[in-house]
């Protein structure tokens, strides 16, 4: 299906595939991120559950994780993303 689309709309760019890979991502039951400390290991920060769209939020998630790692807290309200909500 992808090749047919490329051949139709981008004929000059529809050359042979050099490599292919699947995109792996994880979903949470409620569709929201997890951004929290790992229970029982407070020195470990967890960020996940991007559900295929997390890449758009990388800058702010990185900022939150950096603040948590350096300052122990963040200026953002991340209550919605706590790991113990499940």
Would you kindly provide a written description of the structure presented here, covering whatever features stand out?
The protein is α+β, with helices and mostly antiparallel strands. It has one domain (22-85). Helix content is 26%, strand content 15%. The protein has 2 helices and 2 strands. The chain has helices spanning 2-9, 58-71; strands at residues 34-38, 41-48. The longest helix has 14 residues, at 58-71. The model has no long low-confidence stretch (mean pLDDT 91).
Features:
86 residues; alpha+beta; 2 strands; two-stranded antiparallel sheet; 2 helices; single chain; 15% strand
What is the number of domains? 1
Number of helical regions: 2
N-to-C terminal Cα separation, in Å? 38 Å
Determine the fraction of residues in helical runs and give it as a percent range: 25-40%
Give me the side-by-side strand order of the main sheet: 1-2
Molecular shape: elongated
Uncertain segments are none
Report the radius of gyration as a whole number of Å. 19 Å
Instruction: Give the topology string: H per helix, E per strand.
Output: HEEH
Strand portion, in percent? 15-25%
Question: Mean of the pLDDT scores?
Answer: 91
Sheet/helix structural class: alpha+beta
Task: Characterize the main sheet.
Answer: 2 strands, antiparallel
Assembly classification = single chain
């Amino acid at each position: 299906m992808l090749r047919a689309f490329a051949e139709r709309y981008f004929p000059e760019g529809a050359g042979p595939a050099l490599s292919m890979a699947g995109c792996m991502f994880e979903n949470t039951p409620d569709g929201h991120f997890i951004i929290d400390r790992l229970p029982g290991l407070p020195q470990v920060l967890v960020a996940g559950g991007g559900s295929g769209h997390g890449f758009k939020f990388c800058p702010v998630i990185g900022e939150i994780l950096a603040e948590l790692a350096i300052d122990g807290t963040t200026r953002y309200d991340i209550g919605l993303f706590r790991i113990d909500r499940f």
